[in-house]
Inverse folding.
């Protein structure tokens, strides 16, 4: 029988409540996806803060034993499939797993399930990587580069993606019509254009009316607000 204590990561971040989901994360957009989902789904969990500064927790042997890609978030569910602990990494995979576990925010089958998953994949493959590059070249070390072409490339791509989202939200409260893991995945990244990257003007964020209404609607949810406070 596999116990939570058998996972090397618990040696560096001991579980005080080994009977609940263990979340290893930080308050970045990807980390917020997991904590918001846990709060929205009403799942009990214990959060462990993983630093991305010096010392870099993500590169320690203990963290790598759980996530070979050394990125947050990651989880261990002590009550996984077959009653065995389930270790999992990649924010999109975590959202699907938690949604299937609870039966919330992702249809169990049929066309609507795949419609939701396509928008989740859109966030994973487009919004996250492109907005992340924008942040690097606009706000962080890449901002020191004199050549402005990288910044202009990611400003333009961010505006294009916001336009895609804005058109999808026309006449809808949520991306797929009903609140789903697609919203949970996407909204923290849209928020980061303002809160972390300070790139509202460059991305013309405020001009996308449907996106702005959706974003306000999302972050007004009490469970979302609680999720934002996890591992700040």
């Amino acid at each position: 029988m596999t116990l939570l204590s058998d996972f090397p990561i618990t040696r560096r971040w001991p579980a005080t409540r080994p009977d609940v989901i263990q979340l290893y994360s930080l308050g970045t957009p990807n980390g917020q996806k997991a904590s918001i989902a846990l709060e929205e789904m009403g799942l009990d969990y214990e959060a462990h803060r993983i630093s991305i500064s010096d010392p870099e927790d993500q590169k320690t042997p203990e963290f790598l034993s759980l996530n070979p890609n050394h990125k947050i978030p990651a989880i261990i569910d002590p009550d996984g499939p077959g009653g065995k602990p389930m270790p999992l990494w990649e924010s999109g995979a975590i959202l699907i797993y938690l949604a299937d576990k609870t039966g919330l925010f992702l249809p169990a089958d049929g066309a609507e399930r795949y419609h939701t998953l396509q928008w989740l994949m859109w966030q994973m493959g487009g919004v996250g990587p492109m907005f992340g590059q924008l942040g690097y070249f606009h706000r962080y070390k890449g901002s020191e580069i004199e050549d402005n072409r990288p910044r202009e490339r990611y400003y333009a791509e961010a505006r294009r993606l916001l336009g895609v989202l804005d058109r999808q939200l026309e006449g809808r409260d949520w991306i797929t019509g009903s609140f789903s893991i697609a919203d949970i995945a996407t909204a923290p990244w849209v928020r980061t254009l303002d809160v972390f990257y300070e790139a509202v003007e460059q991305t013309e964020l405020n001009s996308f009316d449907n996106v702005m209404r959706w974003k306000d609607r999302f972050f007004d949810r009490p469970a979302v607000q609680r999720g934002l406070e996890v591992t700040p």
Q: What stands out?
A: The chain is about 50% helix and 10% strand. The beta strands are 21-25, 45-49, 74-77, 86-89.
